[in-house]
């Protein structure tokens, strides 16, 4: 740790830790487990974004993941076998098209599965020897990157033909054949066009989920449920405005709407009326004829709003959630409007990395001093003019996806469902202590992440047993204890 701390820049710390991982996985995981809050922003967001941008320059000493190209069609199983894994519990796969808020990084997106699986091990104790990162190298439309001498991937435009679908199909089938029908496959950072349709295609035939759509939704729903313990009221009392209508925005909107429907007993379409979406063309309304399928359920029969501020004034939301990767979008005018409309507005600036954040914690509290704030990237505590200290919560997906994975593995689940995401969200929200809420923080400390993951895993496993998708019988009497006992620990 002394050697790590001598590095001044986060990217240098990232590279140092990668060399540790290459030489001694046990030591690497011990560092993550014992210093989680310090190193998680280095191993994953926000630093992993820069690592992906510079992936070809970092020259990792050891092999990190399996690259599968279109040239491997017909031989994907052989490509996976090259990883020399006797058993795999979790596969995280990306095609690199939408890396955080940075766009198409092609094969350099491998940093995301590598980082996600490091957190599976750190946060939920999935044995790192049973984790497999995969990058589908299908080209990139980022011409500057494609022509860079340091680019490691295929130097061709992104393939959008039937070969792409055939490659994904072969990957899923090969993973199931090699590692068992219950192997967990996590789709990560796919572009909108592929993310939604691949999830719909595979969720009914294998144990899979999309963390950008579903995992983010679970974390954000948990934060919203926690915020109600500060602001009062119920979920059904709120009006939600999403700035961003892609995977994250629609995924969160879907789970929030389902949670409201559970709370009220009303139809899902009625629950959705509490949700407004803003995309690059303004407020999503029924008057627009160009809506993507995933946006259509949220088209509102109201007048248009060209800007975010106009949408705030029209919708009068109690909660504003940013997932569009437009830095500074929550400017003083927007934040002041939220404060004027609400005694305690809920403002979540969730875009990653930090350079893409809609606003910082300090900017939020300056313009909306009574706001309940959370962010995607970590921000320092803010001292208010009255001397009180506000601790911004980080809506980090690590609060949910590792526990969801552990729960699926613990139960031998054949599927991951939306009900699992709701169970994960409620378990996470219940893990937030009153003293955290008193500081304005809607998430537990990262130092407690293994306890949080055990509770999330237990909730997901319980849902699998109740739904009949579990295959590991008999059901443990104490699922939290079983989750803790199942966790891999560095050094045994």
Automatic annotation (TrEMBL):
Q: Malic enzyme N-terminal domain location, by residue?
A: 21-203
- Molecular function (Gene Ontology), one example: malate dehydrogenase (decarboxylating) (NADP+) activity
Please give the InterPro entries that the UniProt record associates with this protein.
Aminoacid_DH-like_N_sf, Malic_enzyme_CS, Malic_N_dom, Malic_N_dom_sf, Malic_NAD-bd, Malic_OxRdtase, NAD(P)-bd_dom_sf
Q: Which cofactor does it need?
A: Mn(2+); Mg(2+)
At the top level, the lineage of the source is Eukaryota
Which residues are catalytic? Answer: 44, 116
Q: Is Oxidoreductase among the key words of this record? A: yes
Residues covered by the Malic enzyme NAD-binding domain: 213-465
The protein's matches in PROSITE patterns, at most eight in alphabetical order, are given as:
MALIC_ENZYMES (PS00331)
Among Pfam families, the record links this protein to: malic, Malic_M
Keywords per UniProt:
Metal-binding, Oxidoreductase
Q: Report residues binding a divalent metal cation.
A: 188-189, 212
Its family remark reads: Belongs to the malic enzymes family.
Alphabetical list of PANTHER family matching this protein: MALATE DEHYDROGENASE (OXALOACETATE-DECARBOXYLATING) (PTHR23406:SF79), MALIC ENZYME-RELATED (PTHR23406)
Query: What is this protein's record name?
Result: Malic enzyme
What organism does the UniProt record list as the source?
Answer: Aureococcus anophagefferens (Harmful bloom alga)
Organism classification? Eukaryota, Sar, Stramenopiles, Ochrophyta, Pelagophyceae
